[in-house]
Amino acid sequence: MKFKIAGSFMRNLPAIIFLCAVVYVSCKKTNDINANVLLYNASWSLPAVAAAWNSNEILSTPIAQGKSSGSADSPYIKVSAGTNLITVKAGSSTLLDKNIYAAAASGTSFFLFDTSKTLAPVRILQLTDDLNLPDTFKLKYRMLYLVPDTSVKVDVWLVNGTTDSVRLDTAGVFIGATKAAADVQTFKPISFYGGNYTVKIKRTGTQQVYIAVNDYPFAIRGIYSMVFSGLLNGAGNAGLKLSVLRHPSQ
Description:
By secondary structure, the chain is mostly beta strands. It is built from 1 helix and 17 strands. Strands 1, 4, 5, 8 and 9 form a 5-stranded mixed beta sheet that branches. A 4-stranded antiparallel beta sheet has the order 3-2-6-7, with no helix packed on it. Strands 13-10-16-17 form a 4-stranded mixed beta sheet, with no helix packed on it. The longest helix has 30 residues. It is globular, with a radius of gyration of 23 Å. The termini are far apart. The relative contact order is 0.17.
């Protein structure tokens, strides 16, 4: 009897292996049906914006100026992967209504910003986010200059205490109304050994600080977007904004 059972098992072994493989692939696909979408309102002129995915609202509350979906440390929204309809509105005005492709387990970011210091059409920049971790003892970042004023040129510093420690960029300026996504979406790696730093946006070549994010807890192997937006002399919500967004790795 034992030999018959063993023989039966051996005869059915190929089918069992195939079934296990099917179950594994099926489970893997189930875990890879979502994409990650980030929205950021960098417009000085718009009110808070709402967004829908295939006509289903994906924001619990509209996004105010200088804010992102989710939180700064977890800004992505999980949505269905593949080709889907995204709709972005400010009040009753539809800013975007188009089918886009978002790959499973990927990151896609949408930044809304004005192209002029005066009233002008708002642009929506769609970026593909590289969520692969940087090497050990590094972080990677990108700067998005969305202040629509080319006279505003800035240096970007990470500051530990009162000392300017790491300069991230020099003479950064508005990306412009027609900048291609490929030219601004890449993350730049730098050596980093952990710790809290203040991010300072300074007028180029001076110690004048336009705006800062104080004592930010950067992580080793973290992935970050730093967004500078608003107007130099803007009042209230239209004033200068600086956000540090952390992109969770995949």
